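Quick start: read one record
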Amino acid sequence: MKYADVNGKLADYRRQIASIRESMRETLATVEPQEVKDYEFASAEGSVHLSELFGEHEDLIVIHNMGVACSYCTLWADGYNGFHQHVVTRAGFVVSSPDRPEVQKKFAESRGWRFPMVSHADSSFAADMGYVSAKGGWMPGVSVFRRDGDVITRVSDTGFSPGDDFCAIWHFFDMLPGGIGEWPGPSKGRPSCCESH
């Protein structure tokens, strides 16, 4: 097909995707929130409760990160630096992983991460939210919470996987001839943490 014809077809696909996203937002607006307890986490500054992570906001975004063992979770987290300063003007934002706070702190410093992190290692948070697999492995994703007085509810969540909407690099690769190709290279390969759980 000619370049102009392909561009037109792709533009039509993007309009369809935009329409689906609008339908998803409309569906999300009808969901009955799931009440959750005020989980306790560990952080580099000491213990902290879920309710404290909201800061001045009524909404909170919590990333379910699998920790330093997952190179793809690191890839997603590298991307949060760019928009963290913007997202916190609208909602609280924190990355939760099973790593201990001292491990998180050292790794975050090595990556230049500026967003807050908490450890759910000693809580049932990840399991209760559905981010532990049937085999007992951690799973990546995001949960969104709302605080109304002393009541905290989860209003939405979704899992992460290579090619999803939460890591922009996939969409740039989609535009290259051959797509993702051999990236990240035969020596690295696809990490086992992102295989089916």
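The chain has a mean pLDDT of 92.
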